[in-house]
């Protein structure tokens, strides 16, 4: 960025290099969009235009668009999106906060870390869906159960991710702070937390994916609303258009949430440098 | 007699691990006077760094006593500047940790940085500085709280040769002009000779002081000048032999 104002000073060769770089990026983006258009077009062609595959099984882009439009017309589109989004975001937030907190506690006490290690390993390996029946009995069939499932799927990963980042804190920098007489608390907020910022961002990225898995899994088991519910319901009544439509919306939402984390990352990195 | 700033009296230290115990130091005695620059050399793995940890109070001796006549400032092999802090904020770090982060103390630390050529870099990040400048910033950070004793743990070993000679000169000049007491740990014989008033030679594990020499360079304190003096090679030979016994 800071070289931008010196642009006119660059050599001809460097300008060519920059031009090549920009061109390569343009090519990548063009191909990305082209691939999407090609896939959608092929899908549409083999189903509705040529009729090679029955759209009953495959749905089609146009049918998906119509289904989404009719959901919108019925006024339920944003209701289902809202339900799933709320469950995902609440579960995500709880998983991140609890995971970070537990990781801090485990970092602070080696004894606690040793004691809890086998439990965490087992919880991490356990397929959370196995707890489905328990969750229904404990939390009922409302949003609480789905949020709990989301937290369950995300929290262990968040904890392990942050713990390994905390433990990887540069030993020499810890020694430096200790030689200044720093308390554990000072080491934590002056060194451990800021130096694990990059890991925090990458943990958020992982947790975004995990919370979508959690919320949709939760909706598969118990829900009466939401995108996961639409998928299950659509599957049960063989409305593949509905299944595909909900899946497409999910893709868009998940990508959007990931993109927000990337924006956050950029803001934080910029902040740390200015 | 001068005031003693650091005294090890018959210090022993035993490390315990799952596989057994290691005696890192045994019956180790040494003193450092106020304003004196003492260098300690020893064969690798003899527990030189342990000695500084003892002096800094980070380790407790298994036997014997370690007494210090004032506060310690610890300087490590690498600069260990925090990359997310500017040079200025890095220099204030010990002030924050010791809860001395007052305008007067900050001003003192800041003027030290300006005095020793870091004025233009105060708002820069460590990654924008050369290795030599970074190590200089690390020294200013160590001096920020005005410690009575400087503990230097091979502070030049991570630098390339040319930078090392220059930074060595810098650090020596800064420490001398601030009138600080310093204890340097190094494996580099020429560094010890060129910097110190007195050189102590440690034995292999368990470490204790085997030889002690007062350097006779008159009032020449600049390391690069000392390296050119005729006594230098004589000292090198003596210490080399003693180290390899």
Strand order of the largest sheet of chain B: 5-6-7-3-8-9
> Number of DSSP strands of chain B?
9
What's the name of the CATH homologous superfamily of the largest domain in chain A? MetI-like
Q: Can you give the helix content of chain A as a percent range? A: over 70%
Question: What is the overall silhouette of chain B?
Answer: globular
SS element count, helices of chain A: 12
The string of secondary-structure elements of chain B, in order, is EEEHEEHHHEHEHEEHH
What is the mean predicted local confidence, pLDDT of chain A? 91
Poorly predicted segments of chain A: 1-6
Architecture (CATH level 2) name of the domain at 1-70 and 149-158 and 179-245 in chain B: 3-Layer(aba) Sandwich
Spell out the helices and strands of chain A N to C: HHHHHHHHHHHH
How would you sum up the major sheet of chain A?
Answer: none
Number of strands of chain A: 0
CATH fold label of the domain at 1-70 and 149-158 and 179-245 in chain B: Rossmann fold
Mean pLDDT of chain B: 90
Radius of gyration of chain A: 24 Å
Rg of chain B (C-alpha, Å): 18 Å
Q: Which CATH first-tier class of the domain at 1-70 and 149-158 and 179-245 in chain B would you pick? A: Alpha Beta
Distinctive features:
heterodimer, A: 274 residues, mainly alpha, MetI-like fold, 12 helices, 83% helix, flat, disordered N terminus, B: 245 residues, alpha/beta, Rossmann fold, 6-stranded mixed β-sheet, 3-stranded antiparallel β-sheet, 8 helices, 9 strands, 36% helix, globular
């Amino acid at each position: 960025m800071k070289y931008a104002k010196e642009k006119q000073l660059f050599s001809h060769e460097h300008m060519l290099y920059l031009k090549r770089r920009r061109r390569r990026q343009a090519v990548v983006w063009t191909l990305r969009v082209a691939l999407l258009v090609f896939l959608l077009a092929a899908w549409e062609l083999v189903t509705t235009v040529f009729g090679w595959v029955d759209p009953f099984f495959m749905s089609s882009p146009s049918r998906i668009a119509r289904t989404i439009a009719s959901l919108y017309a019925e006024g339920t589109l944003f209701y289902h999106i809202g339900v799933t989004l709320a469950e995902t975001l609440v579960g995500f937030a709880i998983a991140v906060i609890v995971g970070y907190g537990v990781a801090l506690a485990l970092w602070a006490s080696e004894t606690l870390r040793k004691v809890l290690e086998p439990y965490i390993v087992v919880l991490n390996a356990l397929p959370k869906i196995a707890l489905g029946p328990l969750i229904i009995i404990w939390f009922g069939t409302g949003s609480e159960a789905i949020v709990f499932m989301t937290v369950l799927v995300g929290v262990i990963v968040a904890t392990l991710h942050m713990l390994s980042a905390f433990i990887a804190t540069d030993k020499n920098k810890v020694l430096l702070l200790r030689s200044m007489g720093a308390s554990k608390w000072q080491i934590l907020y002056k060194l451990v937390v800021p130096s694990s910022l990059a890991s925090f961002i990458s943990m958020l990225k992982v947790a975004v994916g995990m919370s979508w898995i959690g919320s949709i899994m939760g909706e598969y088991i118990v829900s009466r609303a939401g995108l996961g519910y639409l998928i299950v319901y659509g599957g049960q009544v063989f409305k593949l258009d509905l299944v595909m439509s909900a899946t497409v919306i999910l893709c868009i939402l998940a990508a959007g949430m990931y993109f927000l984390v990337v924006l956050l990352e950029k803001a934080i990195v910029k902040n740390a440098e200015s | 007699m001068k005031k003693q700033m650091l005294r090890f009296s018959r210090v022993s230290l035993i490390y315990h691990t799952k596989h057994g115990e290691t005696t890192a130091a045994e019956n180790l005695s040494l003193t450092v006077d106020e304003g004196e620059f003492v260098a300690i050399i020893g064969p690798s793995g003899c527990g030189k760094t342990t000695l500084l940890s003892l002096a800094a109070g980070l380790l407790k001796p298994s036997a014997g006593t370690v007494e210090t006549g004032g506060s310690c400032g610890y300087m490590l092999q690498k600069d260990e500047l925090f990359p997310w802090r500017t040079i200025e904020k890095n220099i204030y770090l010990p002030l924050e940790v010791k809860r001395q982060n007052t305008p007067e103390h900050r001003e003192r630390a800041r003027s030290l940085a300006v005095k020793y050529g870091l004025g233009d870099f105060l708002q820069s990040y460590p990654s924008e500085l050369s290795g030599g400048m970074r190590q200089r910033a690390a020294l200013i950070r160590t001096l920020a709280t005005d410690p009575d004793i400087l503990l230097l743990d091979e502070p030049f070993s991570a630098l390339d040769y040319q930078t090392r000679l220059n930074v060595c000169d810098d650090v020596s000049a800064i420490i001398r002009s601030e009138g600080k007491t310093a204890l340097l740990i190094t494996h580099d014989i020429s560094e010890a000779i060129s910097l110190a008033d007195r050189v102590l030679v440690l034995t292999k594990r368990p470490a204790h002081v085997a030889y002690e020499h007062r350097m006779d360079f008159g009032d020449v304190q600049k390391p690069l000048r000392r390296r050119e003096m005729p006594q230098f090679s004589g000292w090198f030979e003596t210490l080399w032999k003693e180290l390899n016994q």
